[in-house]
Fold this sequence. Notes:
Layout: H1 9-35, H2 42-47, H3 53-61, H4 63-86, H5 90-107, H6 129-141, H7 151-168
Helix pairs in contact: 1-4, 1-6, 4-5, 5-6
Amino acid sequence: MISENNYSKSQLIFLLILRFVVGWHILYEGISKVLNPQWTSANFLQESQGILSGLSNWIISNANLLTIIDFLNIWGLMAIGVGLIFGFLFKPAAIIGSFLVFIYYLSVPPLVGYEYTLPVDGSNLVVNRTLIEAIALFGLALFPTSKIFGLDFFIYSRNKRKLQNGKTR
């Protein structure tokens, strides 16, 4: 396993900044949904034309399931964002976040012939910010940034000290 000491200070700072900004974006997505009592994922799911369109239609057709999906989406986004920002359970947060954001991408992919009524960011073909964020999250999970700075670091350091103190007694 590669030690975190093999990264330069500038590389680590870049990875931490990337972790924070992606975490903030995901956290804010969840917060904005909590603050908007009219928000529901139904609008997004109705736009689905990707390989998950059948699943999206099934979710929309079941009001109870839609309520559960809305709850999981909002609180999942906030938990993932907090995990990334504070470096707490960072690796699972990054992997789950990557998976969730990739589901968004697969639901509404920017492909030729697909027209959406919801606003999009610029002109995209195959690659959009959603796909980039999913890949960035997966990439972040490959680096030990939370073991360098974050709550995981403090937990890891504390447990390491306990083990070392236990061996010296």
